[in-house]
Amino acid sequence: MLLLNSINQQIVKETNRTSILKLIRDRKEITIKEIAKELEISIPTVKSNVNELIDKGIVKEFGVAKSSGGRKPVIIRFIPESRFSFGINISPKKISISLINLNAKILVEESIQLNTDSPFEKELDKIKNVIESIVFKNNIDRKKVLGIGFSLPGIVDEENLILESAPNINVKGFNFKHYENYFGFPIYIENEANASAIGESELGTYSQYNNIVFISITEGIGTGIIIQNHLYKSINKRAGEFGHMRITDDNIKCNCGRTGCWEMYVSETALIESYNKKSEHEIKSVNQLISLVECKEIIACDVFDNYLRYLAIGIENIILTLAPEKIIIGGKISKYHGIYEEILVEYLNKFTLYPIEKSIINYSVLKGKASILGAGLLPIYQLINTGAATL
Ligand SMILES: [Zn+2]
After folding, report:
1. What is the CATH number of domain 2-78?
2. Alpha carbon of 252 to ligand 1 centroid (Å)
3. pLDDT band for position 354 (50/70/90)?
4. Which of 30, 54, 107, 130 is the most buried (most CB within 10 A)?
């Protein structure tokens, strides 16, 4: 019984510390009295927790607030740059590496090419060099770096730090655990679309919704599913592979070895390639294709219309399966939603079993940074969710 009481006390202490840290981070500035009132925790408990956070350098006392009588209350301020995190996004063409602060603000960002022909270990060497140079150039105290969060284009076992399968970058069964000592920082990994869903639900404008599907349209297609405010991955971590749902009998072969996968019709690569197949004039980017659509170039308009039709087929399947409150489309294509959102909703309603309202379909507000921010948030979540106990 005594042991149970002591375990319970420990849990209450940790919960208090986490709630206090979250509240100070959300408010940026707050007094002890306000924290106690809002969280219904006694003032001495708040004070002792805040003192621990002051000792760790995560918050500090900063001036005094107006008093309604008696002593002026001290303001406690959150220090976003008391700790840092690295967010890394690996996509088939590019590796982006960013240093972020505790408010998930990107302080430095650098990109390097990914060479899918070289062993993945070699690519990690390149990443390590960039991280070391960012730490050196910005005079970052290594003790203040919470860890490195990787956003990866494949199936990820985040608990055992294994990238199980990522055909788009030629990697299978890669264990990141062996690289924690090599990098000198704790490592966290997550699937790219899941990382984007985390970034979008934490930092975007959709934080009030509990059931979200994020569709990441890049060189491939990834989907991140949030159900009742939690990432849904299922026991084998394979939930949300909508990019490989078969939507047609056509024989375009996918990287997974099958044919008819949604990814082969709605990824950026698919959009660019389907234009290049039909036109003598070669394009290299989604931006170029959109410019041609805006100029009403016939082939581009035809290709893009077909693209939207396939996009709608997949989205409708997702809506039928999960009935999310919001679908968020991310990737370069999301920037141009103004020119196609009406047509997409029209196509959705052409096929659908139930009417689909325009407000269900939304577009990323993080300007292509959702996955890198979500990745960088992984070590920060660890800090916040333990109330900085691990420091
Ligand atoms: Zn496939």
Report:
1. 1.10.10.10
2. 10
3. confident
4. 30
